[in-house]
């Protein structure tokens, strides 16, 4: 019991909360960036530009089907071979963004496909260019449909940040490692409190998404 | 369709820039780490973040603390002068060599033994500490020495050479590699293995908080820890070795040993003092 | 890279085998557990719905790594001794079952509610109606998303590496830390994962197109 009380000293909890802060920071930046890149990639794949869309599509498929852990390794250990040496946090953001962009690209593409094809034709018949029709007619509807999928992607991003502990990113999981590095008996209390912290953040997000979904329906 | 052409153009040019950036940077072998560090007045060290007594982040202020951290700071001052700064990047046994080779860090001081296999890929300074591999078991265990490990399960951490040593000395032992030493100990405590093995200093640090466990059988290997440096950095290596000698000569080294290992049960600090 | 593959062939293959085994076992059990909780979530009884909801929400919102470490480190301390492979596979099963429950539940919900009422009016019990009328239709609807869950499962099985589960990633880590060929090792590991996931992914895309 004493181990649990000691493990939950304010100093330790504060250190874990700092880790949670980094986790959220990495996730928010990555989700914003991957939303932008994902949209571009998704539209490219949808647009069926000869060769180019196919190549992009193939890259999306390959990356989506690899474990994120591998992508993190490649970013941190592989990129420096090209003269680019990111620190751990930028490396994590880069890896997450790269991986999530591909995931979001697929969500966007299927979101666009789900919007009635007739709408595109109607918009084009009105004299709109493809880009205009996309921007003003198709995308707003597609994004609306995709909100739940996008939020659940964001939640998995927050959870997946825990994998970045393998390259010693100072996020929640790694801070947990440091806390029980002081005393190996803290290991179980630390895992329990980390589970609670992840749960609170992710569950709050999923409630939020349900609320938005409800309001829009 | 026009908009897409722009997007295509944008991405192609982005890729081009990235490739060019890659070509533009100098290969590591032609850079002089010592010159670079003198210009920036900083040496970047790869250190452990989760190893008590050796290199552990203090949860109060987020600073790395431990024997290796203090030693790195002392050597930095000898190499760069009084105002020289030591920058720390936290590494694991798994990530330290790739990060050194990639140039993220200038030197590794992270409980790394000087080994022939590692010497093929990186250079080492003179040894700054002599550890030895040992085993940790529950009090009352039937395991008394490394020979008893045959047929038993032993826990350790990924990327440490402890695993290879065990496989040579007790080839029938089954080894479980965990991500860090605290987890390896917890795996031992939860019955995943009958013993845990790695260098005695690390085990001693873990045993401090776990009086039910003890080191047995003494050390069965000698593990001279060295500072890892990239190949082709002769000047830097000379400077580090000179710094290390000075730190030992002026008594700083022994002070640090006393500070960190002065009263660790099961670890005789007098054996590692240097004259 | 070829030399690396040849030199460590047996390690890669055994890692591949453990990854496949873990994925299949976890898929099988998470399908069963997931479907059970999906049914709980649509049962008339409020208690059942609450239990189903709590299970799904808890395991969907905690990282798989945390769940797995918990099973590996805590269960053997108090309950029964399990190795990393078993602990990892159990963690994987529970985590995935929460997602499968969500998928199956949405499938059940999209089957016309009138069908359930009609079968009940015919004198069928809730379970009979579920078993013979609703579930068969629901499963057909959710095959593509279930395929995606399986791909995620294979990818997620890489957390076994954290608990010494002998899988591909674990072998990759061990090989990388002895050969120092970090990037090449992970490229080979990546190819092995793609051998499993890419065909499933393309088959699912094909199925989706056929069903649409």
Write up what this structure looks like:
The complex is a heterotrimer of chains A (217), B (275) and C (212). Helix content of chain A is 81%, strand content 0%. Chain A has 217 residues and is an all-alpha fold. Chain A has one domain: MetI-like fold. The radius of gyration of chain B is 22 Å and the shape is globular. About 4% of the residues of chain B have low confidence. Helix content of chain B is 39%, strand content 23%. Chain B contains ten helices and 13 strands. With 212 residues, chain C is an all-alpha fold. Classes of the chains: A mainly alpha (217), B alpha/beta (275), C mainly alpha (212). Chains in contact: A-B, A-C, B-C. At the B-C interface, helix 4, strand 10 and helix 7 of B face helix 4, helix 5 and helix 9 of C. Chain C: It comes from Companilactobacillus keshanensis. Chain C: Its main location: membrane. Chain C: It is found in: Cell membrane.
Keywords:
heterotrimer, A: 217 residues, mainly alpha, MetI-like fold, C: 212 residues, 10 helices, 84% helix, Solute-binding_3/MltF_N (chain B), Glutamate ABC transporter substrate-binding protein (chain B), signal (chain B)
Task: Reconstruct the topology from this structure.
The complex is a heterotrimer of chains A (217), B (275) and C (212).
Chain A: H1 2-7, H2 10-47, H3 52-64, H4 68-78, H5 88-114, H6 117-125, H7 130-160, H8 172-182, H9 187-216
Helix pairs in contact in A: 2-3, 2-5, 2-8, 3-5, 4-5, 5-7, 6-7, 7-9, 8-9
Chain B: H1 2-24, H2 33-40, E1 42-47, E2 50-51, E3 55-57, E4 64-65, H3 67-80, E5 85-90, H4 96-102, E6 107-108, H5 116-119, E7 123-131, E8 133-138, E9 153-157, H6 162-169, E10 174-178, H7 181-189, E11 195-199, H8 200-207, E12 213-216, E13 223-229, H9 234-249, H10 252-261
Parallel strand pairs in B: 1-5, 1-6, 9-10, 9-11
Antiparallel strand pairs in B: 2-3, 3-4, 6-13, 7-13, 8-11, 8-12
Helix pairs in contact in B: 3-9, 3-10
Chain C: H1 2-7, H2 9-42, H3 46-60, H4 64-73, H5 75-78, H6 84-110, H7 113-121, H8 126-156, H9 168-179, H10 182-211
Helix pairs in contact in C: 2-3, 2-6, 2-8, 2-9, 3-6, 4-6, 6-8, 7-8, 8-10, 9-10
């Amino acid at each position: 019991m004493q181990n649990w009380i000691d493990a939950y000293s304010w100093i330790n909890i504060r250190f874990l909360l700092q880790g949670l802060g980094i986790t959220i920071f990495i996730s928010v930046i990555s989700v914003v960036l991957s939303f932008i890149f994902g949209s571009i990639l998704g539209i490219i794949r949808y647009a069926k530009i000869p060769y180019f869309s196919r190549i992009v599509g193939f890259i999306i498929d390959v990356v989506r089907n690899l474990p994120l852990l591998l992508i993190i390794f490649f970013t941190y250990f592989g990129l420096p071979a090209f003269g680019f040496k990111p620190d751990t946090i930028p490396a994590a953001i880069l890896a997450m963004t790269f991986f999530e962009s591909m995931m979001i690209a697929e969500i966007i593409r299927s979101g666009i496909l789900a919007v009635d094809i007739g709408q595109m034709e109607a918009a084009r018949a009105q004299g709109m260019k493809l880009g205009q029709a996309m921007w003003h007619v198709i995308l707003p509807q597609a994004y609306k449909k995709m909100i739940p999928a996008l939020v659940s992607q964001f939640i998995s991003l927050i959870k997946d940040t825990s994998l970045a502990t393998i390259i010693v990113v100072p996020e929640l999981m790694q801070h947990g490692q440091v806390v029980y590095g002081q005393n190996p008996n803290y290991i179980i209390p630390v895992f329990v409190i980390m589970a609670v912290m992840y749960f609170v953040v992710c569950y709050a997000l999923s409630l939020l998404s349900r609320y938005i979904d409800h309001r829009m329906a | 369709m026009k908009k897409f052409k722009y997007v295509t153009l944008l991405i192609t040019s982005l890729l081009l820039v990235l490739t060019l950036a890659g070509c533009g940077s100098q290969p590591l072998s032609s850079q002089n780490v010592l010159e670079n560090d003198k210009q920036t007045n900083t040496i970047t060290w790869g250190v452990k973040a989760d190893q008590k007594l050796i290199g552990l982040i203090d949860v109060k202020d987020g600073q790395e603390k431990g024997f290796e951290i203090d030693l790195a700071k002392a050597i930095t001052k000898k190499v760069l002068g009084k105002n020289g700064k030591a920058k720390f990047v936290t590494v694991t046994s798994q990530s330290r060599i790739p990060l050194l080779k990639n140039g993220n860090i200038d030197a590794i001081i992270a409980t790394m033994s000087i080994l022939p296999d590692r010497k093929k890929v990186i250079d080492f300074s003179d040894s700054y500490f002599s550890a030895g591999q040992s085993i940790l078991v529950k009090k009352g265990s039937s395991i008394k020495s490394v020979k008893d490990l045959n047929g038993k399960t032993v826990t350790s951490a990924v990327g440490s050479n402890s695993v290879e040593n065990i496989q040579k000395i007790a080839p029938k032992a089954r080894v479980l590699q965990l991500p860090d030493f605290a987890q390896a100990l917890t795996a031992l405590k939860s019955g995943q293995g009958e013993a845990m093995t790695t260098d005695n200093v690390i085990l001693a640090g873990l045993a401090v908080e776990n009086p039910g466990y003890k080191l047995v059988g003494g050390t069965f290997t000698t593990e001279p820890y060295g500072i890892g440096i990239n190949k082709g950095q002769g000047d830097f290596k000379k400077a580090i070795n000179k710094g290390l000698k000075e730190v030992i000569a002026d008594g700083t080294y022994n002070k640090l040993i006393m500070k960190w290992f002065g009263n660790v049960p099961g670890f005789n600090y007098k054996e590692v003092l240097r004259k | 890279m070829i030399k690396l593959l040849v030199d460590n062939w047996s390690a890669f293959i055994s890692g591949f085998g453990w990854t496949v085994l873990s994925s299949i076992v976890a898929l099988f059990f998470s399908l069963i557990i997931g479907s059970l909780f999906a049914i709980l979530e649509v049962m008339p009884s409020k208690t059942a719905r609450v239990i189903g909801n709590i299970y799904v929400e808890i395991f969907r919102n905690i990282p798989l790594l945390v769940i797995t470490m918990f099973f590996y480190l805590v269960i053997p301390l108090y309950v029964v001794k399990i190795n990393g492979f078993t602990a990892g596979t159990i963690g994987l099963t529970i985590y995935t079952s929460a997602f499968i429950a969500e998928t199956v539940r949405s499938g059940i919900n999209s089957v016309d509610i009138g069908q359930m009422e009609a079968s009940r009016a015919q004198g069928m019990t809730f379970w009979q109606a579920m078993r013979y009328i609703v579930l068969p239709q629901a499963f057909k609807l959710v095959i593509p998303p279930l395929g995606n869950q399986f791909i995620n499962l294979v990818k997620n099985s890489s957390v076994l590496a954290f608990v010494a589960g002998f899988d591909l990633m674990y072998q990759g880590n061990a090989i990388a830390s002895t050969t120092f060929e970090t990037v090449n090792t992970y490229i080979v590991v990546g190819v092995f994962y793609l051998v499993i996931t890419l065909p499933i992914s393309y088959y699912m895309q094909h199925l989706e197109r056929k069903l649409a």
